[in-house]
């Protein structure tokens, strides 16, 4: 019922008068900013903000200075993964629909996105063997515990997924504000992501960064192409495009196939081709 109500509100906001639109938005924003608002209700109203901005970005833009600080504060203070996910989704739609008005908040959103992309509290990427040992110990003790933590309870992957999509939106729509921010090393370091559907969005964000690099530095791209020909030749010979096609025919999950397909597209984006012999 709530989803239908939010969808209806989003479409309604697109056709009402400016005065009615302002009243709707102010009611939604005041509820989001009210410290007495329950967490469940807060999430619902933030989703309503997303719906309104998606359909009426131009009219919603003037309210950005009121809602963004609230969402930033919620991201930093509330220990709730679903709330963080929704806030990041809001930042993504703001970058897409209210590009100019988002400028004062880009730095803060970038910082939150960077932090949330690496947010994986239940997994230690740097010590996988230790993790395996710890999991074995937990299995032995599971019989002594009434409440057992399940992987199904881990929603942190949704936070990382939303962070990756937010970063892609920032790269695509706020490129001029990212001159001093370097997503490259961060995204590369997150290629080790354990969830395939999150990894797909990380590759998508990295592909957007590669395209942006080519657009902003065509001379540099040309220089690198000339000076890394031998390296590219080795890369292509080691993992030729035909290998991508073979992988996509193998028995992988749909998420894994999507990741490999994105890698194939990324290969095309950076125009790596084997020298003709």
Automatic annotation (TrEMBL):
Residue ranges crossing the lipid bilayer per the database entry: none
Alphabetical UniProt keywords: Repeat, Ubl conjugation pathway
Superkingdom classification of source: Eukaryota
Single biological process term from Gene Ontology: SCF complex assembly
Protein name: TIP120 domain-containing protein
Keyword match Repeat: yes
